[in-house]
Structure formats: structure tokens, C-alpha cells
Write a structure and sequence with these properties.
Distance between the termini: 36 Å
Radius of gyration: 14 Å
Order of helices and strands: HEEEEHEE
Shape: globular
Strand order of the largest sheet: 2-1-5-6
Strand content: 35-45%
Number of domains: 1
Number of helices: 2
Oligomer: single chain
Largest sheet: 4 strands, antiparallel
Structural class: alpha+beta
Helix content: 10-25%
């Protein structure tokens, strides 16, 4: 069963820092005419500002759906997955903005 936390703890932060790739997901307010966007991100583009705030540099693709969805509703999910000796998936559910 999944556990939920109101903020990142030291274990989460260490796990995030050890990952080489993460995924960003956004969805439009109306799924009828638009699509969910899921994008892999990597390199050194994510920074943890505090236990409740992370930022990342987004390099928009062909449609820039992430920024469009964030303007519509602000919903954002970031997922980290490890398949090492101790598999783990960590999802950050929150609100984002494109600046």
C-alpha cells in the first residue's frame, strides 16, 4: 500500500538526488480535445529548494503541452523510479507554474 507524506523527508531527498531520470506529467482541464502529457527529464535540471518545493528547467518540445496545461489548471506530477536493489517509485503531486 502506498504511503503519503505532506512534505519530503531526508530519505526522499536522498532518493531524488540519486536518480538520473524523472518524469513530468500534466493533463488538460478537458480531456475531450487534448492529451495527457508525460515527458522524461534528465541531467541536472531539478533542484530541491525545501521540503515542499522543487523546481526544474523545462526545455519545451514541439507542442509545449506542459506549460499550456499548467496555465489551465496548475496540476503537476513528478515521478522518480529506481530499479536498483531496492526498487522504489516516488511521486510528487502538486501545483506548478511555467515562468
Amino acid at each position: 500500500m502506498a504511503e503519503t507524506f505532506s512534505e519530503l523527508n531526508e530519505k526522499h531527498i536522498n532518493f531524488i538526488k540519486a536518480q538520473k531520470i524523472f518524469f513530468v506529467a500534466t493533463a488538460p482541464s478537458n480531456l475531450k480535445d487534448e492529451f495527457v502529457n508525460l515527458s522524461p527529464k534528465g541531467y541536472d535540471v531539478l533542484e530541491i529548494l525545501d521540503n515542499k518545493t522543487v523546481v526544474y528547467a523545462d526545455y519545451p518540445g514541439s507542442g509545449n503541452e506542459t506549460a499550456t496545461h499548467l496555465q489551465q489548471n496548475g496540476r503537476l506530477t513528478i515521478m522518480f523510479a529506481s530499479f536498483d536493489k531496492t526498487p522504489m517509485i516516488l511521486r510528487l503531486y502538486g501545483h506548478g507554474e511555467a515562468a
